[in-house]
Every structure is written in C-alpha cells, then in structure tokens.
Amino acid sequence: MESLDLSLNRLSGEIPPSFAGLKSITALNFSSNNLSGLIPMSDQLRTLPDPSIYSKNPGLCGFPLEGCVDSSTSTQSGMSRPED
Asked: Which terminal Cβ of the chain has fewer Cβ within 10 Å, N or C?
C-alpha cells in the first residue's frame, strides 16, 4: 500500500501499532478524527514529517506532533492550563 486517507471518518482510540509496519506508504492522512495516544513510528513513517496528516485529533501525540504529556506530571512541567 502506498497511499491511505482515513481523514474525516470519526475514528477514535489509538492508531494500531501495525501501521508502523507499512513499508511502502508515501501518503497518509489521519486528520479530523478523534484519535488519541502515541503515533506508532517506523523508519518509513518518519519520512512523513508533515504534522497536518494527524491534525484535528486532540488526543494524538508523538512525531511529528508534540510529545505526549503524562497527566501525573503535567502540572509540574508547566503543560497544564491555568484555571480562570
């Protein structure tokens, strides 16, 4: 498989780790879903550094997005939002 567009599908949960096994993928789009967790990584997926392919998934983190925040340390690291 070289191209996969799963955008706008109301997908939720984590991206299965098996996606890291896609060896020939050159185009990928997971945007505008409700995905969460760490993005699976492989050498091939590292060739897709555009963060927009994962956009509009507020719970998703990892390369090429920001790192994951551990909820038990988010206050200590300054990553939490101040209360109004």
From this structure: C
